[in-house]
Specification:
It is a single chain. With 512 residues, the chain is an alpha/beta fold. The protein has an 11-stranded mixed β-sheet with strand order 1-9-18-17-16-15-14-13-10-11-12, sandwiched between helices. A 7-stranded parallel β-sheet has the order 4-3-2-5-6-7-8, sandwiched between helices. Helix 3 packs parallel to helix 4. The protein is elongated, with a radius of gyration of 26 Å.
């Protein structure tokens, strides 16, 4: 699912209006009708007071038009115009007149007004600002937003929480409406998925307002939201007449004294993702734990007892994941550098492999094209340097991945995979996955997919989705707090099965 910029959405509006022979107010009416139908299906005429805070632009026009629908179906409403400017959009004025024709006169709020009382059991519709906001709201509007947030009422935002920008992070946390639910038109918005901006909404859902499908399909975007429809075409089914040799030989390279578990998790996840064969290369101290704890995995060891000092292989791996638990001892760094000079297999670099590279940036030129890097936030910062906000972080990450011809997987609540200037934003996963070893599992899964023949980009996108889906399937049984990396591996098979459930068996909602 594509994620569009504000400029692209405006262009889609204009194209749709011209192609369908309608005016902009007809498009606004569609939006308002869709919001009403969503609300009415859930409220069913319930006796609840609905406060509609409407700006004086098109987002406010949506709110004013919605008020008319609610009124006509018997809901108790209170309509407020947030009068932050002398300018009014044409469609806002049209809908304001229509509301007045029904004997409803909104209360106009300005810097001299007392704010209306909002009960905890009431509903607030936030239609103050839309995607066109380009400056911080006036001080009195910030106070109004704080008043709404303090009310504890259920807040439903129209298209985007008021106060959020589409292209930069806010500087004042008090200047953004905190929405329980966002009804977003046609496509999700990038701020929904970033740590600094996604905190202002709990859930979102899309409403189709009939923007031209051909335009949306052809319009290129820098960001794509990855759900089941996007990953299923990537899946590579197994053939009946095949054997383990058809699905690759993955190498998991890492570990040090006290950190052999990281390799064990990665190797086990690599097998669970489908690699035909898996070998772990570890220091001597890892031999017994791996041979006894993971009998399906072959083990090779360094001569050193507690760390990797010299990497000598007697296999030719199909893919390699390295760095987990490896440490950054001087001997290990030398072995890592020597390995890069001779390696020809596709690489997945995690943990200490990334830490070594961040201190030796010239090693980036030694990586095979399309190597997959899987940093967590601090590791990413070591690679890229500082950034002023999440939007600059994404731009720097895109430039980094493009410059070095890498697949960059930025782990987080919505893990993002970046490649050749485009970011793929994952839809699965949950807070329970913020646990030790979860990243080792992901690196192993991606390595296992590459071993089977998945191109590195596809392996990263599919692996991230499957990893998050496995985590989601653990939650009903374990909750968030008790989810562990080992349990995550145990759910990889269930995640594969979930991919192939028939539509009528699926319980997936469109809300996020």
């Amino acid at each position: 699912m594509k994620i569009f910029s504000a400029q692209q959405i405006y262009a889609a509006d204009k194209f749709t209006i011209e192609k369908q022979g309608i005016d902009s107010n007809a498009l606004m009416e569609r939006a308002a009708a869709q919001i009403f139908e969503w609300m009415h299906a859930r409220l069913q005429g319930a006796n609840v007071k609905i406060h509609l805070f409407c700006g004086i632009g098109n987002n406010g026009g949506d709110g004013i038009a919605l008020a008319r629908h609610l009124l006509e179906h018997g809901y108790e409403i209170a309509v407020y115009v947030v009068n932050y400017s002398d300018k009014r959009s044409k469609d806002f004025l049209i809908n304001l007149d229509r509301l007045k024709e029904r004997k409803v006169w909104p209360e106009f709020l300005d810097s001299n007004c007392d704010f209306p009382e909002i009960g905890r059991e009431d509903i607030v519709v936030d239609a103050i600002f839309g995607i066109g906001l380009n400056r911080k709201p006036d001080a009195w509007v910030v106070k109004l937003i704080a008043h709404i947030n303090a009310s504890m009422a259920f807040v439903l935002a129209v298209d985007i929480p008021s106060g959020l920008f589409m292209d930069r992070s806010p500087k004042d946390n008090n200047a953004i409406v905190k929405a329980n639910f966002v009804l977003s038109f046609q496509a999700p918005k990038l701020p929904f998925f970033l740590p600094e901006t996604g905190i202002y909404l709990n859930q979102w859902e899309l409403l189709d307002i009939g923007l031209d499908g051909e335009f949306l399909m052809k319009e290129p975007t820098d960001f794509e939201f990855i759900g089941k429809p996007e990953v299923m075409p990537l899946y590579r089914p197994r053939l009946k007449f095949s054997h383990k040799g058809n699905y690759g030989h993955a190498l998991i390279l890492g570990g040090s004294y006290g950190k052999i578990g990281a390799v064990q998790l990665a190797a086990k996840a690599c097998l669970a993702a489908g690699s035909g064969l898996v070998t772990a290369y570890v220091p001597e101290c890892g031999y017994v734990p791996l041979q006894t704890g993971l009998p399906e995995v072959m083990v090779m060891t360094d001569d050193e007892e507690d760390r990797i000092r010299d990497i000598e292989l007697d296999i030719t791996p199909t893919s390699v994941a390295l760095g987990m638990g490896m440490g950054t001892h001087e001997d290990t760094v030398k072995a890592f550098v020597a390995f890069l000079k001779t390696n020809t297999a596709p690489l997945v670099l995690d943990a200490d492999a990334l830490n070594i590279i961040s201190k030796n940036k010239d090693l980036l030129s030694q990586l095979p094209p399309n190597s997959v890097l899987t940093p967590h936030p601090k590791e990413l910062q070591r690679l890229l340097g500082d950034w002023k906000d999440d939007f600059e972080k994404l731009e720097k990450a895109k430039e980094f991945a493009t410059e070095h011809k890498l697949v960059l997987v930025i782990k987080g609540a919505h893990t993002m995979t970046l490649y050749e200037g485009k970011a793929y934003i994952n839809s699965t996963g949950n807070p329970g996955m913020a646990t030790a070893g979860s990243g080792d599992v992901l690196a192993g899964m991606i390595c296992g997919l590459i071993a089977q023949g998945y191109p590195p980009l596809h392996a990263a996108i599919f692996g991230v989705y499957l990893h998050g889906l496995a985590g989601d399937l653990c939650v009903p049984e374990l909750g968030y707090e008790s989810l562990t990396a080992s349990k995550l591996i145990g759910a990889i098979g269930k995640a594969y099965i979930k991919l192939f459930e028939r539509p009528q068996e699926e319980q997936e909602a469109t809300a996020h």
